[in-house]
Write a structure and sequence with these properties.
The complex is a heterotrimer. Among the domains of chain A are: about 300 residues, NADH-ubiquinone oxidoreductase 51kDa subunit (Rossmann fold); about 120 residues, no CATH class. Chain A is about 45% helix and about 10% strand. Chain A contains 19 helices and 16 strands. In chain A, the strands form four sheets. In chain A, strands 1-13-12-16-14-15 form a six-stranded mixed β-sheet, with helices on both faces. Chain A has a four-stranded antiparallel β-sheet with strand order 2-7-6-4, with no helix packed on it. Chain A is globular and about 105 Å long. Among the domains of chain B are: about 60 residues, 3-methyladenine DNA Glycosylase II, Chain A, domain 3 (Orthogonal Bundle); about 70 residues, Alpha-Beta Plaits. In chain B, helix 2 crosses helix 3. Classes of the chains: A alpha/beta, B mainly alpha, C mainly alpha.
């Protein structure tokens, strides 16, 4: 362990395999301070902005919310809440395009900003060292903090681990080109960041704290070194600039020389990695009681007139940010849509439209011009055959063989992909960046990964279905045997009784017959009672509505019949008629309830019972017929009455 | 003459020896069951839908092992046919027309859905479901356990009120397949 | 407003396969120039012939395969490079149909029938060279002596004439051109050495022959040197990997050094091996062909070493004076297997796991 620290203090690090040096372009934004933006008119907050599950809504449309108010909550540990970034009114809760490469829509809260920016009540914590571990973790969880580097893993889970953590690594590498959000945050908020690191130290009690930062941020390095001067435990490690040194696994390798075993998390090796922006959010949450409602976003690219870092409220639509920085599109004729990328040029994803909101993991909005990034405009159209030059394998930080993966991915050879360790790919894009054949390698891997995952799920499902099928078969078999057994027993018993008391059988039979007769009589009485009730009610209304229902039914049936194929039409019609009959029964019955407000409770109860019976009988054909006969009699009577008052529309044809 | 006898004797001995060896091997290395059926069964999608004409996947696997056509599994589609062909070392055949998946619903896996207000609680679908994925009791509303439903559509036909329909599983972020070409980019203003 | 959707990474270092191919073609120029200087116009004529044939063949096959964007594929440089390499290898005064047949075979059979660019298991130029060598041994071994040693001067017109008609305008035949004043047919240095050592001469006696010039091999040494320079430029430009040429030359050096130490009389010096025949061309332009070579670092080292050994073995014990083409083809065959067993250990996998994975692979 000492040797690691010795090496680090001598500024010697372990190299990781591969890596690339794309043009950094950080100077576009690194020299300007972080700008405060005016409030947008509307905020769009996706309910889920992290890895895990979304919380349950606490608010409804029309609610007034205050800045910092929690909008969702959940008792699931993998869920983190979202908060109102400013005060306003919930104007809608609906599906909207979210910050995701798929461009799919998910449930979002729309907040109409009132402009007052009124805070909810806050409790500022003067001395966080007085707080217990549990208190801090609850504060972090309640503040909705999820990893701000890119993946968005809930922070309270990451810091709530068992002791014996060797290394707490603070990731300030920011290796992606263009992005300077962490750089500027460190320059301006180094004290708060160090507070955040100390809170983490209190929680995790690591043996060493290493801050990994690339050497292309001299000012941030200076600021960090200054802020951590008094703390022995913290080492600011200045790393040579190379993409992707900010990848979690790569950073661990650089700083400690250890590799995270495939399929395990760094925590299993006693290492916790936190993004530096997350540290700032933690200190804000624990000390100032400010939940995660804003973040630094780098707005950059040559399509912007004034590229700059800004403090953006979560939920700010990209359109608002682009408008503030002077987004210019090349106004050429038949110009294709320009790309706007959320995240860096190597791992970011292009967003669908300007409605996409800033979320907890959005560190950069990149609007490149065609000159600076032509490949962002052409949608991988230049792909040619792989010539096995092996440049991809040279730059792969996971030491995979991208060219072989690519062939297997194209051939959908999932077994071979697994053998080639596809799932150790970190999607960094270094291979596709250097590929002279311009093959969108990462895209192939992502599709293959998604397919493999889906296949695994299908396999699990198939296994489950098989088990359930087998279980069902077994059960049916057992039931059959049991039934046969029962029949046998019953037959034997009957035989025995018959043998024993042949004289009694006559009386038993007559008893059964009597019971049956009783039941039948009761039923008839019930039906007649229903009919009787109807006579007391206003029959006109019920009749008219009956007609309407029936007309509609016939109409829809005929339309559907036109649409469907002749072959299945007959079957459909049969089913429809069947359905209609039952529905009609129900409709008439329910109509009866509505039209009999005057009758006593007693009567009502009886009607309900009758309806229930009517519904049940719908199943049994024979009884249904009988019932219908009864009803027809009843409605004929009704009609007879109605005809006395007004002309009757014909309606009975479908019966 | 003696030479001939010796030759016969030697050959006979050898034949007997090898015969005994083979006999012993067949007893010693006897394979219990027919593993090919198990392997085939593992390739089938286990929807237990019976669209192949057999009551479940295992019986169809058995039938294929006995020479039935390999192209009758509609839910498995071409993928499954390819795998079976690979396993058996036969040619891939296009899926049998009679067993083709009803494509009126569009592509993608489906699950059954009960329109609950129409359900009369007849339990007929429960009896039809091969994997017990329908929950309900007589005269009570039924519902589908989506996670267990294999999309075999065996419950659709028995329903007397036609309240069961097959619905395509909607695309979500979790099951999205990274097909960027499918994202329709359209001008909003 | 809707935005353009594309897959990450959005940036690219803007290299292109065609640009790489072009660079390789440029890098052959010093060698081609040296060939022109010592052997006259023959190779340049053959190269032009070969390029034209290659483009025609490529166009025909791509059209037959209903490929889109034929123009782009036609000028991606791969066919031209194959033609250039073959043109360099063909004897300067070989008849025209040698290069035409060779390139047609290279493009249509070796390259396109196997699936086109990126799918051919064998280096097209070398496969075609071997095919020609076996089918037309006379024409393929009729190397003229360097210009300085020739009895009859051959200018451009004469070379053109001898390539297309078999005779110079003055009426000299190929055979006559190859004959020195003393009436001996000139062969390449490697050929001469092989023949003489076979006849029982020592290497030193053989080297007296003026075909070997002042140093190792008259003309050939400078041609090889020029290819070496071109190759080093390619390595500097990171177009080719350094591992293959290095391990190839090192392996050839070790083999010849051992032999030379044991029996200096019957073995040529290491530098002779390096600077004669197609050694440098093979090391920097043929073996480094990414499509048919190994892809991993370890694999490249192995392939290079194997090729060096094979070249030495074929030169010394085989039936042909030079073995680069055969060695390359044999290495092409072995490359997939070498790749298979030289996969690097993936991050996060222990060496043991890695070994098991390799063994488990098909």
């Amino acid at each position: 362990m000492e040797s690691i620290i010795e090496r680090i203090s001598q500024n010697k690090f372990w190299p990781f395999h591969g890596g690339i040096h794309p043009p950094e372009q950080k100077t576009l934004t690194s020299s300007k301070p972080i700008k405060q933006l005016s409030l947008p008119k509307q905020l769009i907050l996706p309910l889920q902005q992290h890895i895990g599950r979304q919380g349950d809504l606490l608010v409804k449309v029309g609610d007034k919310v205050l800045k910092g108010q929690a909008l969702t909550q959940s008792f699931n540990p993998m869920a983190v809440p979202v908060h109102a970034p400013t005060s306003g009114i919930i104007s809608a809760i609906k599906k909207s395009v979210i910050a995701h490469p798929s461009g799919l829509s998910e449930l979002c809260l729309f907040i109409d900003v009132d402009g007052n920016d009124t805070w909810q009540e806050r409790k500022i914590c003067q001395d966080f060292t007085q707080l217990s571990r549990q208190q801090i973790i609850i504060k972090i969880a309640d503040a909705g903090i999820a990893g701000m580097g890119g993946a968005g893993f809930p922070t309270h889970i990451k810091v709530n681990t068992k002791p014996d953590i060797n290394f707490l690594i603070i990731n300030a590498a920011e290796c992606e080109p263009y992005i300077t959000a962490d750089d500027l945050l460190i320059c301006e908020q180094s004290e708060a960041i160090v507070d955040g690191i100390r809170i983490l130290e209190q929680l995790l009690n690591p043996a060493f704290i290493l801050i990994g930062i690339e050497d292309n941020k001299p000012q941030a390095i200076k600021a960090l070194q200054h802020a951590t001067k008094t703390i022995e435990k913290i080492n600011v490690c200045v790393l040579p600039t190379k993409y992707p040194s900010g990848g979690e696994k790569q950073l661990i390798k650089i700083l400690t020389g250890k590799e995270v075993k495939s399929g395990t998390l760094p925590i299993h090796s006693g290492i916790v990695v936190q993004n530096i922006a997350t540290c700032f959010a933690i200190s804000d949450a624990v000390i100032n009681d400010i939940p995660l409602i804003r973040r630094v976003v780098t707005l950059t690219g040559q399509a912007l007139q004034k590229p700059q870092n800004v403090w953006a409220l979560l939920g700010t639509p990209v359109s608002h940010l682009l408008a503030q920085t002077g987004f210019v599109t090349e106004n050429e004729a038949n110009e294709t849509n320009p790309p706007v990328i959320m995240g860096g040029p190597l791992m970011g994803f292009s967003i669908l439209n300007e409605q996409v909101p800033i979320v907890k993991t959005s560190n950069c909005i990149l609007a490149p011009s065609r000159i600076e990034m032509p490949s962002a405009f052409d949608n991988n159209a230049n792909e040619v055959e792989c010539i096995r030059c092996g440049q991809c394998a040279e730059v792969c930080p996971s030491q995979l063989l991208p060219q072989e993966l690519q062939w297997s991915a194209k051939a959908k050879d999932h077994q071979q992909l697994a053998k080639l360790n596809l799932f150790d790919c970190i999607d960094c894009g270094a291979c596709a960046y250097v590929c002279p054949s311009q093959i969108p390698l990462v895209q192939y891997y992502r599709i293959a990964k998604a397919q493999i995952r889906q296949q695994q799920q299908l396999d699990i499902k198939a296994e489950k279905a098989k088990a359930r099928f087998e279980a069902r078969k077994l059960r049916l078999e057992k039931e059959k045997i049991a039934r046969e057994e029962k029949h046998k027993k019953a037959a034997a018993a009957r035989k025995a009784t018959m043998d024993k008391k042949p004289a009694d059988s006559g009386s038993a039979n007559s008893a059964v017959a009597a019971a049956l007769a009783r039941v039948r009589a009761k039923k008839r009485a019930n039906v007649q009672r229903v009919a009787g009730d109807e006579e007391q009610t206003k029959v006109n209304e019920s009749l008219v509505s009956n007609n309407e229902i029936q007309d509609e039914k016939t109409k829809t049936t005929s339309i559907e019949m036109d649409d469907k194929k002749a072959k299945i039409a007959a079957a459909v019609a049969k089913a429809k008629v069947k359905k209609e009959q039952t529905e009609l029964l129900q409709a008439t019955s329910s109509e009866k309830i509505k039209t009999a407000p005057a009758v006593t409770d007693d009567k009502k109860a009886r009607i309900v019972a009758a309806i229930a019976k009517a519904k049940a009988t719908a199943k049994a054909k024979r009884e249904q017929q009988e019932q219908k006969e009864q009803l027809r009699v009843a409605s004929n009577e009704e009609q007879a009455q109605a005809q006395e008052k007004q002309p009757k529309p014909s309606n009975e044809e479908s019966k | 003459m003696i030479n001939i006898l010796i030759a016969i004797l030697v050959l006979g001995t050898i034949a007997a020896l090898f015969g005994a060896l083979l006999g012993y091997a067949s007893v010693r290395f006897h394979v219990v069951g027919d593993p090919i059926v198990e392997q085939l069964d593992a390739l089938l999608p286990q929807t237990q839908c019976g669209q192949c004409g057999y009551p479940g996947c295992k019986p169809y696997a058995q039938a294929v092992a006995n020479g039935e056509a390999i192209n009758k599994c509609a839910p498995g589609g071409e993928e499954t046919i390819k795998k079976i062909a690979d396993l058996l070392g036969v040619d891939v055949e296009p899926i049998d027309e009679n067993h083709e998946q009803n494509s009126s619903l569009g592509n993608g896996p489906t699950v059954a859905f009960i329109i609950e207000e129409d359900c009369i609680g007849c339990t007929k679908c429960i009896q039809a479901c091969p994997v017990d994925a329908i929950l309900g009791a007589a005269k009570q509303m039924h519902t589908i356990l989506i996670d267990e439903c294999t999309g075999c559509d065996l419950c659709v036909a028995p329903c007397p009120v036609d309240c069961i329909e097959m619905r395509v599983i909607p695309e979500t972020i979790q099951n999205w397949q990274w097909d960027l070409n499918k994202i329709a980019v359209k001008q909003l203003n | 407003m809707a935005f353009w959707i594309a897959s990450s990474p959005h940036n690219h270092n803007q290299t292109a396969t065609s640009a790489l191919m072009r660079l390789v073609i440029y890098a052959t120029l010093p060698g081609v120039f040296a060939q022109w200087y010592f052997f006259g116009w023959g190779n340049i004529i053959h190269i032009s012939l070969a390029v034209m044939t290659a483009l025609t063949c490529e166009f025909i096959v791509l059209s037959l395969r209903n490929k889109k964007n034929i123009r782009k594929q036609l000028f991606d440089g791969s066919a031209i490079l194959t033609a250039v390499l073959l043109g360099i290898c063909i004897p300067a005064i070989a008849p025209w149909w040698i290069s035409v047949i060779g390139v047609t075979f290279a493009i249509i059979v070796v390259k396109q029938l196997y699936g086109g660019l990126g799918h051919n298991p064998f280096n097209p130029a070398m496969a075609a060279y071997v095919m020609l060598l076996i089918s037309f041994p006379l024409q393929m071994t009729s190397w003229q002596p360097p210009l300085a040693l020739m009895t009859a001067p051959v200018d451009f017109a004469n070379t053109l004439s001898i390539i297309f008609t078999g005779f110079t305008s003055e009426g000299y035949s190929v055979e006559q051109l190859r004959t020195t004043v003393d009436g001996f047919t000139m062969a390449t240095p490697l050929d001469t050495l092989k023949t003489n050592v076979g006849l029982g001469f020592t290497v030193f006696e053989t080297l007296e022959n003026n075909i070997f010039g002042e140093h190792f091999a008259f003309g050939w040494e400078w041609i090889n040197f020029a290819f070496l320079i071109g190759g080093l430029a390619l390595i500097a430009k990171k177009v080719i990997a350094w591992q293959t040429p290095l391990s190839f030359l090192f392996s050839l050096f070790v083999c010849s050094f051992i032999a030379y130490s044991i029996s200096p009389d019957s073995s040529a010096s290491t530098l002779f091996h390096w600077l004669s025949g197609g050694c440098m061309l093979g090391a920097f332009f043929i073996l480094t062909d990414p499509v048919t070579g190994a892809t991993s670092v370890k694999g490249r080292l192995i392939v290079g070493a194997l090729a060096g050994l094979l070249v030495y073995v074929i030169r010394t014990f085989g039936g042909y004076p030079d073995g680069v083409a055969f060695a390359v083809l044999l290495c092409n065959m072995a490359a997939p297997l070498i790749d298979q067993y030289s996969r690097p250990r993936t991050y996060g996998h222990t060496l043991k796991e890695h070994d098991n994975e390799q063994k488990g692979l098909k």
